[in-house]
Amino acid sequence: MRRVKWLVPFVYILFVLAPIYWLLNMSFKNTNEILGTFTLWPRTFTLENYRKILTDPTWYGGYVNSISYVAMNTVASVLVALPAAYAFSRYRFLGDKHLFFWLLSNRMAPAAVFALPFFQLYSAIGLFDTKLAVALAHCLFNIPLAVWILEGFMSGVPKELDETAFVEATPSGASSCASSSPPSPRASAWRPSSASCSRGSSSCWPRR
Amino acid sequence: MSAKVPNQKAWFLVLPVVVLVAFNAVIPLMTVVNYSVQETFGDNVFFFEGVKWFREVLHSERFRLSLQRQLLFTGIVLAIQLPLGVAIALAMPRKGPWVSVNLVLMAMPLLIPWNVVGTMWNILALPDIGLLGHTLNAMGFDYNYTRQPVAAWATLIAMDVWHWTSLVVLLAYAGLSAIPDAFYQAARIDGASGWAVFRFIQLPKMKRVLTIAVLLRFMDSFNIYTEPIVLTGGGPGNATTLLSIDLVKVALGQFDLGPAAAMSLIYFLIIMLLSWVYYTAMTKDEVE
Amino acid sequence: MARIRLENLRHSYRARPGEDADWALKRLDLEWGAGSANALLGPSGCGKTTLLNIISGLLRPTEGIVRFDEQDVTLLPPDARNIAQVFQFPVVYDTMSVYDNLAFPLRNRGLAGAAVDGRVREVAALLDLDGMLPQRADGLTADGKQKISLGRGLVRSDVNAILFDEPLTVIDPHLKWRLRSKLKELHQRLQTTMIYVTHDQTEALTFADQVVVMNDGLVVQSGTPVELFERPRHTFVGHFIGSPGMNVLPATFEAGVARFAGHPVEVVPPRRAPRAGAVLELGVRPEFVRFADAGIPVRIGKISDAGRHRVVETQHEGAVIRLLVDEGAPVPAERGHLRFDPAFTQLFADGWTTAGEGPP
């Protein structure tokens, strides 16, 4: 049994790769071949599809939009989440546990519940159908997650590190950034990738 | 963990987060609550209706069916993903050259945008030109997920398993990696069988991680929207119209604000209740 | 209990070991008598855990043979060797009760319920765990859990040897001595062969009848605590054992006379001549240095109070020499003379004593 244990992840990985391979396969075929025949690899290999999405504005416009609002959202999320995570990790204040739990509870909110309200809210403030709106709206789901993860990492940074930084006579803002951030870049780096996945996909929000 | 210092000024650090999240959460929710207890016939004229919408939704056949479908979906998906994820994590190497390769490949489905996942499976399962669809039909099955409810469900579930089992795998793997070698060594010396090692060492030590995995998977599968809408659009007919999809249909398709709002609140409440019950049950004998 | 013998043992973690540095364990031959209490002492990374794992069967040695009572067990897995191992941190089955934890090894071997019960209660009484048998194992303190780990080893009556891998590491200091005495008491009662790995000399010297000192994969010396103290074979043993450690001073050796900074010093007669060009050192413990009217002239430095005696630090030509002076005995104010007890002063060549056998 121990010998063939590797078969389990191996088979699963094949399962994981199959749709991706199929996607790649199709991306190199022309439309005729896709609709006409069933082939396991492209008989008429073509780069036409890639050329199209990179040169046709209706295609690459999507990427540009996505990248811009993901960037906005990531910057906003990390910027506000870092001080909050620091506060949760280092301080006790009135209502902190309840606040933390409320933040996390937004993670379990069904996105569909907000479809209509967001529609109305962002129309009301005149941001309807803009990238900024999308970026802001996603703060609802992203910030709690960011705070949760960053708080976990910050709790792992010993308090003594902060204190040394403060003692070494640097302006307090810079010192806390400098000392808390280096161990956290891994955490901060994780944020954009998870942000872009569900971001790039929610069909509710951008109504182009 | 070092003690936290009481400091009320910390509220200033937390304020931006609160403002942003509250803006996006509290205002819409207030809107929803507002709509859920009022009726309008247009022209922005509203009448207070009390619990009328709630009663209507809870008694509506449509809502009940959606809820049933959703519970069925979540139940099946959890029942497959959790044991499968744990089994794969147990079988993955923990030392040696293949560790990183395994982890990277395992993580791939999690990185793909959700509507791409839906589209990918949509194409993959097409009866004549998709890899899956064509193969199944060639093997003698009569498979068409756009027309057959059972096929649609099977494809939906396969897609979700494909997409999210990796999360369970990675979480379980992390939990397993945290078990020191000494436990395995002691078990060997005690003459424990493989099953005993799983039951008495691995499973208890993974409990925390598995609790998180179940919670996350439950919440996400209960809220699922993007993948099924891209894959089947809720069809054929109503076959795969899960709660989220139904809600959006009611809210943005029909613009029935009252019922949609009531449904939203009920939806939200169900999740919170089930999550809270589950979480409390799992952590009641843990000392934080 | 079994007599354990290691013959010609060498171990490397690399696939193709070449030079000396590739070997985690250099060539060694060791024997431990049946029922003896032994310690493996050395700093972190010296190879003692490697050696322990070879004895327990968790590791297969690159070269050499392991024998339990003449039987070659080198290729046998741990469960076939009938040994028990207690690890650095407590290894208990959290979901089971204390009773079930202790019964686990017996049940796995298919013992009947009544026999299991008898054995479990016996061992629990031995370890003062009998009041806690029905409790869940994860509710116990660290020392309680270590006792359970120990108990699981003792519960098998035919156990060949009990191996301890720094078992007191996670125990609170004020409980350490209690557990230590318990272990000693257990050894006296059960007379099982015990091998105790530690980097703490107090633990090793108080527990074991025979101590093996290791450094960098090499067995430096094996002997009783007294032997290690009074006749260290290597300057490392001198440093490592005793607090403060042995004084090591640069020396010369000409015409059969050892000298420190020009002054002749009487040493234990060398059994072999040091090789040409060897680094020569004199080693003498502070316990064996006295103030005298004549001898090596020194300047008095720091005096530390260590309770029943005082540690006086003196200097001569840049070398520091420490000695112990009884409470109440006089210490010269600024200068004095030192005399080294010749029976306990040795000449070391390249670290190895000339008074006994050289390097292995």
Set down the secondary structure blueprint.
The complex is a heterotrimer of chains A (208), B (288) and C (360).
Chain A: H1 7-27, H2 31-36, H3 48-55, H4 57-90, E1 91-92, H5 96-105, H6 115-124, H7 131-137, H8 139-156, H9 159-167, H10 172-180, H11 185-199
Helix pairs in contact in A: 3-4, 4-7, 4-8, 4-11, 5-8, 8-11, 9-10
Chain B: E1 5-6, H1 10-36, E2 38-40, E3 46-48, H2 52-59, H3 61-91, H4 99-111, H5 114-124, H6 131-138, H7 149-177, H8 181-189, H9 194-222, H10 226-231, H11 243-253, H12 257-283
Antiparallel strand pairs in B: 2-3
Chain C: E1 4-12, E2 23-32, E3 37-41, H1 48-56, E4 63-68, E5 71-72, H2 78-81, E6 83-86, H3 98-108, H4 113-126, H5 142-154, E7 161-165, H6 173-190, E8 193-198, H7 201-207, E9 210-215, E10 218-223, H8 225-230, H9 235-240, E11 247-250, E12 252-254, E13 257-260, E14 263-265, E15 280-284, E16 289-292, E17 296-305, E18 309-316, E19 319-326, E20 335-340, E21 346-349, E22 352-353
Parallel strand pairs in C: 3-8, 3-9, 6-7, 7-8
Antiparallel strand pairs in C: 1-2, 1-4, 4-5, 9-10, 11-15, 12-13, 13-14, 15-21, 16-20, 17-18, 17-20, 18-19, 21-22
Helix pairs in contact in C: 3-4, 3-5
Number of domains of chain A: 2
CATH topology of one domain in chain B: MetI-like fold
**Low-confidence segments of chain A, ≥5 residues, pLDDT <50?**
172-208
Task: Report the count of strand segments of chain B.
Answer: 3
The end-to-end distance of chain B, rounded to whole angstroms, is: 11 Å
Shape of chain A: extended
Q: Identify the quaternary structure here.
A: heterotrimer
What's the helical proportion of residues of chain B?
Answer: over 70%
Work out the radius of gyration of chain A.
23 Å
Approximate strand percentage of chain B: under 5%
In summary, what is this structure?
By secondary structure, chain B is mainly α.
Q: What key attributes describe this structure?
A:
heterotrimer; B: mainly alpha; MetI-like fold; 73% helix; C: 360 residues; alpha+beta; Rossmann fold; OB fold (Dihydrolipoamide Acetyltransferase, E2P); 2 domains; six-stranded mixed sheet; 9 helices
